[in-house]
């Protein structure tokens, strides 16, 4: 008989930090980071979609350099919520 192995999610200890809203937001971030890996096909599709959504017309981007889309803003927010002003 074949044995079925199920990978469980890693346990993340509860972290108390700031108010209830901040703590629950941190818990959500940690649960996403500790979740299962995304299949490669889905990651490639998501990357392609992000490139399509954020692509700019070449002539337009030369005129306005300040109108760029920053994809790092969510990462900055996550870093601030995890490490505060120390990061």
TrEMBL record:
Q: Organism's domain of life?
A: Bacteria
The ranges of region (Disordered) come to 1-20
Q: What is this protein called?
A: Uncharacterized protein
Q: Which organism is it from?
A: Streptomyces kurssanovii
């Amino acid at each position: 008989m074949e044995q079925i192995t199920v990978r469980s999610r890693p346990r993340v200890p509860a972290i108390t930090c700031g108010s209830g809203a901040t703590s629950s937001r941190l818990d959500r971030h940690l649960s996403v980071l500790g979740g299962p890996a995304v299949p490669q096909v889905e990651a490639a599709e998501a990357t392609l979609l992000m490139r399509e959504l954020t692509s700019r017309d070449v002539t337009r981007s030369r005129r306005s350099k300040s109108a760029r889309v920053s994809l790092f803003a969510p990462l900055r927010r996550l870093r601030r919520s995890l490490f505060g002003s120390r990061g």
